[in-house]
Amino acid sequence: MSVNTDDVNLEQYNQLLEHTEIPEQDKVVIRQLIEQVETLTAENGRLRRTLLRVSSKNESKMSSKLKDALYE
Questions:
Q1: What is the pLDDT of residues 8-64, one digit of tens each?
Q2: pTM score, two decimals?
Q3: 66 phi, psi to nearest 5 deg
Q4: How many alpha carbons lie under 13 Å from residue 5 in its C-beta half-sphere?
Q5: What are phi and psi of 19, to 5 degrees?
Q6: DSSP E strands: which ranges in 1-72?
């Protein structure tokens, strides 16, 4: 399942987490998941920029499968 992180409002989840009656141990796990999503989103952005930079230098060498995956 693919999730577009542009559609995910992590701040909204943080606020919701503070205003619910969820046990504290579950809140800790949810906060860890939110932090992991933030980390992975940032890493994904860095990897995309790097891939675009490298592919622009080697435009003729990039396979069509790689190009298709990049544009997904």
A1: 788 888 888 888 898 999 999 999 999 999 999 999 999 999 988 887 776 556 577
A2: 0.61
A3: -65, -40
A4: 13
A5: -110, 25
A6: none
CA dihedral 63, 59, 71, 8 (to 10 degrees): 120
List, in order, residues 6 or more apart from 66 with CB less than 8 Å away. 55
Residue type, 70: L
Query: Six-digit token pair at 55?
Result: 């592919």
The contacts of residue 62 (CB under 8 Å, 6+ apart) are: 55
Phi and psi, residue 23, nearest 5°: -55, 145
Tokens of 61: 């060498």
